[in-house]
Design goal:
Layout (H helix, E strand, L loop, with lengths): L3 H17 L2 H25 L11 H19 L5 H8 L2 H6 L4 H31 L10 H25 L1 H4 L3 H14 L11 H7 L9 H7 L6 H31 L3
Helix pairs in contact: 1-6, 2-3, 2-6, 3-6, 3-7, 4-7, 6-7, 7-11, 7-12, 11-12
Length: 264
């Protein structure tokens, strides 16, 4: 019998191989990221016209924010990839629940494999493009690099846990497209992808940092650009990862009982 660690390692590899087969979609998505990155950086540069900086964002920090955000869009996944909800709707989830594994961790391992492939093909190219053709803000301290890698990994895990909870809501809602759509419409703004969170009023920033959304985009960018002490965004990510993971565990336990009650 294979150990759990071996199983999760195989699922990471399976996730990487699965998404590496969609080469055409990867190239199309990368092209879209670059085009929208050019539009977004133009808007921020226009906002800075005649100003040295706005809310701590000068030309270099603004450019870095845009290209990191474009790269993280597919790596972290802010919307889409709600397969568990579809499997609940069709009833295929019964097969998943009958297998002797921790479904939440197995799907997380597969998502880490997906994120690894996206990092190589959808994160690094936009960042390299931005660094070559626009002002760029590189870390001043060597420790920032491993801290950013940790923060990016936490973003992927927090995103998965949030999407896993949304998927499990189909057990009770049967059709969870409403919550999924609401999440997709709000996460880009509340997470710091569309507009940097420091652009918002102080009171609204405080409210947003009480939610998991900044852990998805703003926190890793703040760590890389050394916008402040890195322990604060990392602690925020770790806290919400624990909360969402535990919420997923409890929701999955309740979902299993619901399947039994419904005769699934």
């Amino acid at each position: 019998m294979r150990s759990p660690a071996a199983l999760y390692a195989r699922m990471i590899g399976a996730g990487f191989r699965r998404y590496s087969s969609y080469r055409g979609a990867t190239l199309a998505g990368l092209g879209t990221n670059l085009v929208f990155g050019l539009l977004r950086v133009s808007v921020l540069f226009a906002m800075l016209d005649g100003r040295r900086e706005v809310a701590g964002y000068d030309a270099a920090r603004s450019s870095t924010y845009v290209w990191f955000g474009q790269g993280m869009l597919a790596t972290v996944v802010l919307w889409g990839h709600h397969e568990i909800g579809e499997r609940v709707r069709t009833g295929d989830v019964v097969v998943d629940l009958s297998r002797p594994w921790n479904l939440q961790l197995v799907l997380l391992a597969e998502d880490l494999g997906r994120a690894g492939y996206a990092f190589l093909t959808r994160f690094l190219p936009p960042v390299a493009f931005g660094a070559l053709f626009f002002p760029f803000l590189w870390p001043a301290h060597g420790l920032t690099w491993p801290l950013f890698a940790l923060s990016l990994g936490l973003s992927v895990a927090v995103s998965f846990c949030a999407r896993f909870l949304l998927g499990l809501s189909a057990f009770w809602l049967l059709d969870n497209r409403g919550p999924v759509s609401l999440y997709g419409m709000s996460v880009g703004i509340l997470g710091g992808l569309i507009v940097p969170l420091p652009f918002f009023p102080d009171w609204l920033q405080t409210v947003l940092w009480l939610t998991p959304f900044p852990a998805l985009v703003q926190a890793p960018i703040d760590v890389f650009t050394e916008a402040g002490p890195p322990l604060a965004p990392l602690a925020h990510q770790l806290a919400w990862l624990g909360i969402l993971y535990l919420g997923g565990r409890l929701a999955l336990r309740g979902a299993v009982r619901k399947v039994v009650v419904q005769g699934g």
